[in-house]
Amino acid sequence: MTITDVAREARVSVASVSRVVNGHANVLPETRQRITEVIDRLRYVPDTAARSLITGRTHMIGVLLPDLHGEFFSELIAASMPPRASSTCTSCCRARTATQPR
């Protein structure tokens, strides 16, 4: 499902759908309602990869650890994340280093 599919179904432009998805005020209430109904019915979710290409922001926090298991690292990560990270971070990337520490 793409933004084009939503626009076609709601009989509006892609720009109008984009304005509704991004919360812009310059859309007529009737049009906004029709677009919102189509979004809900089609279960449209914006593509985060496409959005990050346009905005230049991924909203991703990456953490590189020597070990993914164990209480120490999970507590360390939980303590170091900003309080709003869970609401602003849409993706989580975890990785383990390939080599053993010296």
Could you describe the 3D structure shown?
The chain has 102 residues and is mainly alpha-helical. The protein has two domains: 3-46, 434 Repressor (Amino-terminal Domain) (Orthogonal Bundle), CATH 1.10.260; 57-96, no CATH class. It has six helices and two strands, in the order ααααβααβ. The protein has helices spanning 3-10, 14-21, 29-42, 48-55, 71-80, 85-88; strands spanning 60-65, 91-96. The chain has a two-stranded parallel ribbon with strand order 1-2. The mean pLDDT is 81.
Name its key features.
102 residues, mainly alpha, 434 Repressor (Amino-terminal Domain), two-stranded parallel sheet, 6 helices
CATH topology of the largest domain: 434 Repressor (Amino-terminal Domain)
Largest sheet data: 2 strands, parallel
CATH architecture of the largest domain: Orthogonal Bundle
User: CATH superfamily of the largest domain, please?
Assistant: lambda repressor-like DNA-binding domains
Parts with pLDDT < 50 across at least 5 consecutive residues: none
* Total beta-strand segments: 2
Number of helices: 6
The CATH class of the largest domain? Mainly Alpha
Mean pLDDT: 81
Percent in strands: 5-15%
Shape: elongated
Q: How many structural domains in the coordinates? A: 2
Order of helices and strands: HHHHEHHE
Approximate helicity band: 40-55%
What is the terminal-to-terminal distance?
49 Å
